[in-house]
Amino acid sequence: MRKIFKWMVLFPSFLFLFCSHTVKFSTELIPVMKDTHIEYINDKGKTIIKGDFIKGSLFREGLALVQSDNEKGTWGFIDTKGKYVIPSAYVNATVFSEGIAWVTKKNSRPIAIDKTGKELFTLDHAELVGNYTDGLAKFAVYTIDGDLRWGFVDKKGTIVIKPIYKDVKSFSEGLAPVKLPQKGWGYIDKNGNFEIAPQYYMAKIFRNGKAVVYDKIDSATIVNKQNKKLLPDTYNDLHVDGDLYMFEKDRKFGWLNKEGKVAILPIYEEIHPFAGSNLALVRSDNMFGFIAKDGTVVIEPQYTEGFMFLDDIAAVTKDGQTGFINKKGDYVIQPSSIHIPFDIATQTYLMDTYYRFIFNEYIDTDVVFDKLDFIHTEGITSEMTYEEIFNLFDKEPSDFYNTSNQKIINRKVVNIDISYSFYTIGNPFFSEGNFTDSFDVNSKPKSFKYNIYLSDNMYKRIDKLQEKLVSKLDGFTKVDANTYQNKQMKLHISQQLNQLIIEITYL
User: What is this structure's pTM?
Assistant: First the structure.
């Protein structure tokens, strides 16, 4: 599906999982990146808050989420004076929405906190969780097969809609788009009852009583809550923008009025919503400018980068320098070498904010080691020959040509975030550095290696995984910091980026 907004192309997974209606923010203070740290400036460009922040959000509900420049990169919340109201003590966190934020500690499940930092409850088994909207937060759990299933939790921690859906978007105006396995998208109410039965290829949230639905990948229309179509035609893509509809035609973008007639011609390479403002950001001939609702160009396209208006000012970049302009196009904050951080960028691209969801920091090591048996190496024993191993894994000798590490199992899934490969170490088709087209199938490999891969959101848990592995090595003696052995084998354990590597040598 071609998208109206370029940021959605750059970060499709965020859009797919978490796009919903906006968490309100304040522009009294604006985060900008100066060199390597975030500062908060006022609408005159004066620095009001300066700290050791490497990331920072807009202020929401009186607090901003910031990441400290310390060894652990922890997160906390500051007030408009720059004082920590909630200490920088979390592995990850969301911004506040409806009085609640989600946080995680080292190896913890998502924890709901209030604006004093008080822990309200822990959402057990949740792997992903998003901010509250309409009183409910979406969350995902793993099934026994490693699939994600989504449901909703209320502010008391009660699961009010069970996690049975393949995908969901947040509640808005009392309804949430959901997708059941093997079925299309529909809309449920807060009791989990379908108001619009599953039938669509894709569906967006309701805005002003209207929602975008897709009959197929590039066929979008608008429906009301009674599932009545409000447009006579379909379009490649649509977005509800107040009383207008943003639309795509032949890879150009414009606006329709509520009757479906063209209000602003589709002549732009990229557009962004008015979103309550009287000016919208557009891109023409690869430069950014701003237009009014009648299509009049108010600020000529002249910027290499632009962002939607935050109240009465907008960030723009020209000649490598970034400043803020007013709605006349005059600079109110002069251009300099500042950069615009994620939160403003994602907010203005209708993805709400970069800080509206978190991943679980807990790793269920027992589940991992139930599926991985290092001692018995996938059923191989020290007496098995290559021929027996080939038969065990339905391999052919040709599978072992021309590589130094021989993959017996390649990227087998443990769950959606953990997978592994299993190798023999050494190539039986090479002898003293020279390739040979035959080898003794009755010979026995002596060394094997597991590469356990953790997804990016789980890499911080690799130490916990190694700690659990070591605790399960009954009967092994520690040889050095990373090596253990018993009478049959020696294990060497190491880490590489987001991989845990276990090398096994039979003695």
Answer: 0.76
